[in-house]
Write a structure and sequence with these properties.
alpha+beta, four-stranded antiparallel β-sheet, 10 strands, about 30% strand
Length: about 180
């Protein structure tokens, strides 16, 4: 868009006529360019919003007073009753271990973020399954204008205990998390 503007500016300057006369002739062209630029901007914003994530999980590196750790283990993502590996939706920016996505402060991949996010289609029922035991910490989950702080501590050594978060993505959802 900037290139087009610069080309028009150069053309105006090299046309051997008075500037006011040239501008009057080019006024309809300028109006069209402004309208097209506005349309492009609006369409880009709508597409960005439509494709932005609508579920965001943030590991807080905090723990319950009784916990021995602050790890977050996302074990499974269930979409409309079908189980999936978390990396299928949330990518692999966290540690992948035993098909789970793991965040832990003491074993970080290079430039590992505290936050992962996913995009689910409107009308989707999602269940996020997290492991709960004495080494698990706290996380924040944002979805559908909801903001939940969750503590995955459970007084057990067992790795089979879970906590599930059920999310219904509204059928009229048009965009991502704000």
């Amino acid at each position: 868009m900037l290139n087009l503007f610069l080309i028009l500016l150069i053309l105006i300057l090299i046309i051997p006529r008075p500037l006011s006369e040239t501008m009057k002739k080019l006024l309809p062209l300028w109006g069209s360019i402004v309208v097209v630029a506005l349309i492009v901007f609006v369409v880009q914003r709508i597409e960005e919003r439509k494709n932005s994530p609508n579920v965001v999980i943030t590991a807080l590196n905090e723990k319950n007073e009784a916990a021995d750790g602050s790890e977050i283990w996302l074990m499974r993502v269930t979409v409309n009753g079908v189980d999936h590996r978390p990396s299928d939706y949330f990518g692999n920016s966290w540690i992948e271990k035993e098909d789970a996505l793991v965040w832990r402060a003491y074993e970080q991949k290079e430039e590992m973020p505290d936050t992962i996010s996913a995009r689910f289609e409107p009308g989707t029922n999602v269940e996020l399954t997290f492991q709960a035991n004495k080494w698990r910490g706290k996380a924040q989950i944002i979805y559908e204008n909801q903001n939940e702080l969750l503590d995955f501590y459970l007084d057990t050594d067992n790795g089979k205990e879970i906590k599930a978060v059920k999310i219904n993505i509204s059928p009229t959802a048009t965009g991502g998390v704000n």
